Amino acid sequence: MDRRTASCTRTTKETDISLTINLDGQGKTRIDTGIPFFDHMLDGFARHGLFDLDVTVKGDTEVDSHHTIEDTGIVLGQAVAKALGEKAGIKRYGYFILPMDETLALCAVDLSGRPYLKYSADFTVPVLGTMDTEMVREFFYAVSYSAAMNLHVKIMEAGNNHHMAEAMFKAFGKALDMAVSAEPRMTEVWSTKGTL
């Protein structure tokens, strides 16, 4: 399997984003989105997924966190799709249940080429650091649609809001790592359709 690395950019009146991902990395990160809690979440995603991730964002954080987080999700999804190419020889499906103290998060991924998000998490505070908690869902929505993946993210046991968000991002990293990993018995695209 060739080295699966991709770089994507996005420039609008609201954000200027540069992102590179290596799906076959070691979890090395360099992240600066201007939202420290979001940086922490992306770092957990990449480290536990063993993705090398380089992200630089200049966003209108003086407005709020929305544009920066949503647009970063869009660009991350685009980069994952680009790095995967035709998706031949990968497992396609991935899942993980991740505990973080009292919290338990579930994530399941299908790199189906059909975007869909099923999300279930009830945060009890509006903000974590300077990141609006409602943006956790918006991030996963943006990634799922721009990468054309079926993504389920669910808090099975709630608790501390920081733990809930972090468990979801880490579970996503672990599930995506499984989905993009090589299946040695399969050299073609794993679909009855012959394409994903």
Write a structural description.
There is one protein chain. The protein is α+β, with helices and mostly antiparallel strands and 196 residues long. It has 4 helices and 10 strands, in the order E-E-E-H-E-H-E-E-E-E-E-H-E-H. The strands form 3 sheets. Strands 1-2-4-3 form a 4-stranded mixed β-sheet, with helices on one face. Helix 1 links the parallel strand 3 (29-32) and strand 4. The relative contact order is 0.20.
Strand content: 25-35%
What is the multimeric organization of the chains shown? single chain
Order of the strands making up the biggest sheet: 1-2-4-3
- Compute the average pLDDT: 95
Shape: globular
Number of strands: 10
Helix-strand string: EEEHEHEEEEEHEH
Major pleated sheet: 4 strands, mixed
Estimated structural class: alpha+beta
| Uncertain regions spanning at least 5 consecutive residues | none
Which bin fits the share of residues in helices?
25-40%
Q: If you compute it from the alpha carbons, what radius of gyration comes out, rounded to the nearest whole angstrom?
A: 16 Å
- Count of individual helical segments: 4
In whole angstroms, how far apart are the ends? 17 Å
